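Subject: sequence -> structure tokens, single chain

Hey, anyone have a minute? Need the predicted structure for the following. Not urgent.
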Amino acid sequence: MGYVAVKGGQDAIENAIKLVDYFRWKGRTKPIELDQARTQMRLAVDRAMGEGSLYAPEHAALALLQVEGDSFEAAFHLRAYRATLERRYDAEILNTREMFVHRRISSTFRDIPGGQILGPTRDYSFRLLNPALLNASLGSIEKFLSDLRDEIDPNKLHEMTTYKKVIDIFLKEGLMSSQARPGEDRRVFDVTREAIKFPVPRSATLQMLARAETGALMCMAYSTMRGFGMAHGTVGELRVGEVPVRVVDKRGRLRCVGKIKVSEAEMVGGSGHGQGEGGGRAAKKTGAPRYSIGYGLCFGQNETKAICMGMVESALRNPNSDNPANNQEFVLYHTEVIEGYGFTNHLKLPHYVTFQAGMEGARRVARKNSDKAEQVTVSAGGVEENND
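Reply:
Had a minute. Here:
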């Protein structure tokens, strides 16, 4: 593919960047501080970290400020920054049973061990614009926080605890298997260092889905519910909270280096008598009914992505070329945010050479067809004169 340089060279590029800054500052509004973006736009920050594949709230907030809130560009900047970092340790597997829970719900049972914890959510609110935010100030914020503290009854506080998993109920009753499927590839695969060759092991699938673009992943998950698939999962458990990250240091000691906030979804698939772990239609109708599970985990509070990830992961464990969401290559390549964003936006770059070459070929064909049409017309006219 041929490209040509932008007319004006480096000066034109610098002028374009200046114009970007001009449109940012021409309103002469107060600059947004980094802490403001990190705390008041936390969901946008969490999404940028997930798609950028880097847990760094300050850097994600900076990226969003730099690109005026464009989530694609923010993820692109974080991926680029991530590529410059040295990898010193490999973290131990996260144990989400240790999660300090901010939010925990289940759609499979009304009552779950420890109870439903709604936590911070807008799921049950009206989607109405709130003009009160226009008058928000530090004073009003302090008053809100003070009033909220006054509402807390110290006598009803209890010690911090962890919670059992909802899927333990299924496991205890024998309605779900904790064993890997026969023949399932359980290798630990690193998508950032190893070339992708399909079919990829489950670890690679989960990594790529965790980095996937949220909207694209939702599109895939929604397609499975609308008939382009065989799954309609139910939220077995959705958790949002902080989990400890541990690494083994150079002396072989296991150390906790901090906590990260994650969203985790365990999607329970439909049960069918003898359908096996995935509920596939081709399964033999023998044995006990089993529920399947699709797993999703991503950075920050991004519940939609975690749920969609669980649904798509479940679909990918039951390959079917007739359904897009059951096709590994289709899903994993086409939900990859940087690949998709880069390729579609590269169309804005100069394509003069290749397009003009193609158009010149089209013109030659058009001229030849025009010449042939004229010859046929002249010939037909001559015959008509002879007949006269």
